[in-house]
Amino acid sequence: MLNVDAILRFAEGAAPVQSCGNRRNTEESPSGRNSTGMSMLKKIAVQMDPIERINIAGDSTFALLLEAQKRGFEIFYYTPERLSLRGVDVVATMQTLTVKDTKGAHYELGAPVEIFLRDMDVVLLRQDPPFDLAYITSTHLLEKIGGPTLVVNDPVSVRNAPEKLFVMDFPQLMPATLITRDKAAIDAFRAEHGEVVMKPLHGHGGAAVFRLLREDANYGSLFDLFATSFREQWVVQKFLPAVSRGDKRIILVDGEPCGAVNRVPAVNDIRSNMVRGGAAEAAELSPREKEICATIGPELKRRGLVFVGIDVIDGFLTEINVTSPTGIRAIQRTGGPDVAAAIWDAIERKKAAGQSRGHGVEV
User: Fold this and answer.
1) Does residue 319 carry a catalytic annotation?
2) Can 153 be counted among the known catalytic residues?
3) Cα separation, 137 vs 144, whole angstroms
4) Are 260 and 250 within 8 A, CB to CB?
5) Which structural domains are found in the chain, ordered by start?
6) How much is the pTM?
7) Residues of the chain under the 50 pLDDT cut
8) Is-catalytic flag, 302?
9) Annotated catalytic, 190?
């Protein structure tokens, strides 16, 4: 086993970047910089999907990597299947990573080396859903790293906050919602609310999201399809016609709103996800959306969920995304703040405060 400190030279940190409208208060919280103004972070690992497959124009992980590189951090890359538990040690076969914001030539990788994750200052948990047993297993392994390594988002909280279930902790902010696979319960819900949306509980990216009309001849077949395809319960939610005007993605950083983008569905589609053809528009927060953020923010912070994306339609909270939220590049492209910088500012503050994991465990 090679110790990373014995084989690599580490770059010094870059100058600090102000976050989310200069929200940082350097007197109230540590800056994450040493007395010379250099970053206390040096070694960053990212657990993500194959980097050769990402679309850099919209990929939030790539935005985080660009910012980490700008700050002088040494970046290590690995995919989830390279993660192992050897006795009490969590290890991964990693490669050094250099990124460039150039389509078709956006990364360079070093030679594979097996490294202790406890030798990293920060591990970014950025693999995309599906939130299946493989994903859950990786959170169990990351939980065992120990020491001063900070995992973002906290793997325990990611595991315990499935996105379409966690949001149910805030029913007062949501449209009418039912989690079930019982046909009689769905029938009663439809009779009460009329048009509904039905989607898999652990779905992602707008896949398998269906709108059911009040009287819909496809309902029986759709129920059979869901019953065959998904063993867990499903989400049935009152349809919000205002989705045609957009589904707002709001990014919260350590519990504070940091930027937003309105995603407008394509013609003849109710799904606003940009991977499904949704168009990004500049967006500001309404008073109701600020109220939503103020309500959920303290719980996100308590759970160590540093980077969270929430979805709001017509003033109703519909999802809280914690596994691998996106939206950073769309927000900046439409004139919003540099969310990637804000996230790294928050991570540096947590490290300076002596936090391991995400939820403030002192080391």
Assistant:
1) yes
2) no
3) 11
4) yes
5) 4-155+341-357 (3.40.50.20), 176-239 (3.30.1490.20), 242-335 (3.30.470.20)
6) 0.87
7) 1-19, 21-29, 358-363
8) no
9) no
